[in-house]
Amino acid sequence: MKSSRLLSILLLLQTRGRMTAAELARELEVSVRTVYRDAEALSAAGVPLYGYAGHSGGYQLLAGYRTRLTGLHAGEAEALFLTGMPGPAAQLGLGRALSAAQLKLRAALPPELRAQADRMRLRFHLDAPGWYAEHEETPYLAQVADAVWRGRVIDVRYRRWRAPQEVRRRLAPYGLVLKAGRWYLVAAPAGTPGPDGTHDPEGAREAEGAQEARTYRVDQILRVTETAGESASELPEGFDLAAHWQRAQADFHARLHPEDAVVRLSARGAARLTGVQARALAATGEPDPELPGWTRATLPIESEARAEGQFLSLGADAEVLFPTALRDRVRSTVAAMAARYV
User: What's 136's DSSP letter?
Assistant: First the structure.
């Protein structure tokens, strides 16, 4: 609705300051021409909205102007209470702050919206970790979160899966991500701490020019020390945490399944596939020309060794066709099993 869009323009300019027509159009998912018309409508209604031409121009409200049209409709009130995550907030040291904010928000709502928000809170609960995931201690989460919030470079002792397992890193924190109940730190290398914890110039030279953000599991951090002096961590221009995480996830899945296998599946075998392989089946599956009722598909695999066990678990409902090396591995294992059960 136009009235809702006009209010959104007011709130965006009130919270962000000057914005170009193109920026407003992207936020509102409308055309730039629509933004121009809306700006004219706001000005005609007496809103002190000013437009500035030029490369650094845009729209801006008169300094000090504040709109009081900030009421919530039912869906917005419900959504705000649904986003409350007491577990993660408590881990970050914000549990009391979240409770206080929700209490203030509830008190500010009219009775009918308050009842709907309470119903949402009582009927929906978010429990992000999987069923079989063990609880992992993150004793340094609060320190890491504080460094992220204040933009401070930190020295960490970190445990990784390959040798040497314990390493020291100097990191410029960019943000924290909670994925399936596990916290991840997105940070860029900021040099390497020396043996005594001081900054290592050689490590700094190695890290120079390699400021691409990397991902670290917070539960694998063994110690955190904030760097001395005024070591500030600034976000690169244009860095977007959510967009970076999405790219990192796509890259992870691409590296996780670098190979393909052509497999013939019965209906029961196809139904047992999950995740990326189920999606690949939907995308590449075709009726098998030799076995009626069976499907032939190209499925991503991590390695031949992992794929052997996976396809063997499908029993007689799957047949590996290619690569030949994987087919031979499965055939040898099946032959050994048959000999054992004679």
Answer: -
Tens-place pLDDT, residues 178-191: 888 889 999 998 86
Residue 201 scores a pLDDT above 50: no
Spatial contact of 254 and 300, defined as CB atoms under 8 Å apart: no
Asked if 188 and 214 count as a contact pair (C-beta separation under 8 A), the reply is yes
- 297 in helix, strand or coil? strand
Strand partners, 223: 157
Q: Is 305 exposed, middle or buried (0-12, 13-18, 19+ CB in 10 A)?
A: exposed
The single-letter code of the amino acid at 109 is: L
Contacts of 103 (CB under 8 A, 6+ apart): none
Q: Is the dihedral of CA 140, 141, 146, 149 positive or negative?
A: positive
Beta strands in 166-205 (DSSP E): 166-179, 182-189, 192-193, 199-200
∠ CA 254-260-263, rounded to 5°: 140
CB neighbours of residue 307 within 10 Å = 24
Say what the pLDDT of residue 206 is. 40
Kindly report, residue by residue over 271-325, the tens digit of the pLDDT: 999 888 999 999 999 999 999 999 999 999 988 999 999 999 999 999 999 999 9
C-beta separation of 158 from 168 below 8 A: yes
Contact 205/170 with Cβ under 8 angstroms? no
User: With contact defined as beta carbons under 8 Å apart, do 70 and 80 qualify?
Assistant: no
Cis peptide before 189 (omega within 30 of 0): no
No. of helices (H) and no. of strands (E), the chain: 14, 13
pLDDT value for 317: 95
- pTM higher than 0.90 for the full model? no
Amino acid at 170: R
CB atoms within 10 A of CB 141: 20
